[in-house]
Amino acid sequence: MSANFEAKKAVVEEIKEKISASKSVVLATYDRLTVAEVTELRGKFRNASCEYKVYKNTLVRKAFEELGVTGFDNDLNGATAFVFCPDETSGCSIIAKAVKDTPTLDGKLVPKSAYVNGAYVDAEGVKKLAAIPSREVLLAKMVGCLQAPIANLVYALNAVAKSKS
Q1: Is the dihedral of CA 94, 95, 101, 105 positive or negative?
Q2: In what order do the strands lie in the sheet with 109-116?
Q3: Which among 38, 57, 127, 147 has most CB atoms closer than 10 A?
Q4: pLDDT surpasses 80 at 121
């Protein structure tokens, strides 16, 4: 076998490992991004424990096929970036926030689809995922909701105690 074939086979294995290890994989068009914009995006993804990579579409298609995943054939064309994430929403959120905060990215960085917990998510679904707060924010809201009745009871009891003194 040729060295080129072996190299491609190794890349397909790498992609399969990354897909399997990630809770979500976001596919996005990155057409006409400058080096500075890509570097800034990579930093944002790195801070969220995500990995931004660019692979040949044919190799990613092969990795998806070997994993038994279908539905991505239409999205694997043109300039495509892949964001491998340890959770379901961070990659989508970072892309949406980057486009919102940096007007020059509008139209250059466009989510195509995602692979979330073993399921295909279309571009509309990616936008909906981006609107979901992060796990930490949701947990903080839940703790606040659980803490509020107890705190109100303490304030009421304290007010009663002060009024009797």
Answers
A1: positive
A2: 51-54, 80-85, 24-30, 109-116, 119-121
A3: 57
A4: yes
